[in-house]
Amino acid sequence: MSNVYKQEAPNICKRMSTNDLGALLTQVKSLETDRERLSKELMEAQKRYEEERKRLEETQQKMGRLTEGKRNEMQQALDTVIKKWLEDSVKDENLRKQFETGMTRLVENTEEDSGVWQVVCCASNVHLRRLQELEQLKGEFEAFKSKAGPEFQAEDSRKRAREEPERGAETKNIWAIFEENMKGRDFSAAL
Questions:
Q1: What is the domain count for the chain?
Q2: Model confidence pLDDT, tens digit, residues 16-69
Q3: What's this model's pTM, rounded to 2 decimal places?
Q4: Is residue 84 within 8 Å of residue 128, measured between CB atoms?
Q5: What is the span of the domain harbouring residue 43?
Q6: Could you tell me if residue 168 is inside a domain?
Q7: 90 with 100: CB under 8 angstroms?
Q8: E-assigned strands of the chain?
């Protein structure tokens, strides 16, 4: 301590009255009480913060698992349905690669609510459904063809030739019939 303080300290204490000293002690006690209260509030706030941080981590882990599941689902849709649709629909290899890159970016960011993703999924699902319907129709056609009797397996046996006139029908001259119908009728031209 400095020499000036050592010399002045006893003088300061003598000058203070007991009332001043009592007020000072009361103020110190009040500050100590406030410090203890604030310390408790700080401890409680830190405890609440830690609890909220733990809950946030748990929620983020759950979201991560949900997001990972959704990402895997989107990746599977991209690998199976969408790539097949692209191969069948887009002939330019460069365009197909660019489109696949964009779709991969949507999968990595798990942007399932993207309008582009939803339209592509709808289009590729319709394409897949049409292919399945076509395969089903081909199968039904082959089954029908195999069930048909031998007299109908050749196309010529199922169809009548176009050049042949109908059996039992006589050939009529339509203009001769029209002329017969018009004979005997009076016609006067209105002028």
A1: 1
A2: 567 777 888 888 999 999 999 999 999 999 999 999 999 999 888 877 776 777
A3: 0.45
A4: yes
A5: 3-15+17-156
A6: no
A7: no
A8: none
